[in-house]
Design a protein that fits this description.
Blueprint: E1 3-6, E2 9-12, E3 17-23, E4 31-37, E5 44-49, E6 55-57, E7 65-70, E8 75-80, E9 89-96, E10 108-113
Parallel strand pairs: 2-10
Antiparallel strand pairs: 1-3, 3-8, 4-5, 4-9, 5-6, 7-8, 9-10
Length: 114
């Protein structure tokens, strides 16, 4: 499945952004996740959502980010509130679980300024 992330941009600290990830086919039976990669750092897991709608978050974003899905639109969202400087990075959506053949796509850049 091909994934296209969008919705990134430049936002001030404390602001909000909503990322979207649209798949090339149905995601009804697919668990999905968001990862991010800050400059000079390794890619890190951010959030996940199961086919049944159960969600999980990394400790650094829990309470500020919300992952959701709209199967009818083949789209997964990441609502990001109370953004911090350390949230800056390229955000990727991905099919879970990860495999060696996981496709990351181009990601979408999020830049949080002071």
């Amino acid at each position: 499945v091909q994934l296209q992330a969008s919705g990134g941009g430049l936002v001030q600290a404390g602001g909000s952004l909503r990322l979207s990830c649209t798949a090339s086919r149905s995601i009804f039976s697919i668990n999905m996740g968001w990862y991010r990669q800050a400059p000079g750092k390794q890619r890190e897991w951010v959030a996940a959502i199961t086919t049944g709608g159960d969600t999980a978050y990394s400790g650094s974003v829990k309470g500020r980010f919300t992952i959701s899905r709209d199967n009818a639109k083949n789209t997964v969202y990441l609502e990001m509130n109370s953004l911090k400087l350390e949230d800056t990075g390229v955000y990727y959506c991905v099919v879970l679980p990860l495999t060696q053949r996981s496709s990351w796509g181009q990601g979408t850049q999020v830049t949080v300024s002071s």
